[in-house]
Write a sequence for this structure.
């Protein structure tokens, strides 16, 4: 009953006739506690403060812990900003190793195709100043792709960049429910099982021979270069 009241309160916030959205992301399982808190205190605090519903999936895959936030785009973006800050902590305002901070959002392929065709990713990148990266291949057994939104540090300006990008993505989801909620979408559901992984050092399709390892490394390098070129095309105006 409490859950129903919370969802009802979210629905009652609408002033323009638009529906709330659900934005899903995969977060580092080791950092999930930062947005839960002791006894769920932080989770409840964020829900009450921003008038949203936050759900963390109980099953965890190696690629991360599925987290969903239900609400209106502006409030959902504010919560994801809070999540980013809590996950990485105020001590990482400056990063010396050049590593970027961000989240992996899940976007159905039909919506991702629309974002590409209409140059929305370039618009989000240009307007927000956040870094945008769309993974080319959907997750295994799904039609969902990972859309990374990252910033270089946790200064307030960079957090604003991140929040703006998430808000703009949320508005695209809200404006195109026929794509975001299409019956043909196959959504990612954590299974708790290890997913196939392609990379150096063994794993799926690995071989003990040095020639096979060299060939695999060469293939991965070529794929990485092709991916970089594709990312540049996505953000081109």
């Amino acid at each position: 009953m409490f859950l129903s009241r919370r969802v009802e309160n979210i629905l009652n916030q609408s002033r323009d006739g638009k529906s709330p959205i659900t934005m899903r992301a995969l977060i580092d399982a080791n950092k999930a506690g930062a947005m839960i808190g002791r006894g769920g205190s932080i989770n409840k605090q964020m829900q009450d403060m921003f008038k949203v519903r936050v759900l963390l999936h109980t099953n965890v895959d190696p690629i991360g812990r599925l987290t969903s936030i239900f609400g209106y785009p502006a409030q959902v973006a504010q919560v994801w900003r809070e999540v980013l800050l809590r996950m990485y902590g105020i001590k990482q305002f400056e990063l010396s190793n050049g590593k970027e901070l961000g989240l992996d959002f899940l976007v159905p392929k039909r919506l991702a195709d629309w974002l590409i065709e209409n140059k929305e990713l370039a618009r989000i990148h240009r307007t927000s100043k956040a870094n945008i990266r769309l993974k080319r291949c959907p997750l295994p057994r799904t039609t969902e792709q990972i859309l990374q939104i990252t910033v270089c540090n946790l200064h307030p300006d960079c957090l604003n960049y991140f929040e703006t990008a998430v808000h703009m993505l949320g508005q695209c989801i809200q404006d195109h429910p026929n794509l975001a909620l299409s019956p043909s979408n196959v959504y990612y559901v954590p299974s708790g099982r290890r997913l196939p992984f392609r990379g150096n050092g063994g794993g799926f399709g690995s071989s003990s021979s040095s020639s096979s390892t060299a060939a695999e490394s060469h293939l991965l390098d070529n794929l990485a270069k092709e991916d970089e070129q594709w990312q540049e095309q996505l953000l081109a105006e």
User: Anything to note?
Assistant: Residues 9 and 51 are 8 Å apart (CA to CA). DSSP finds eight helices and six strands in the chain.
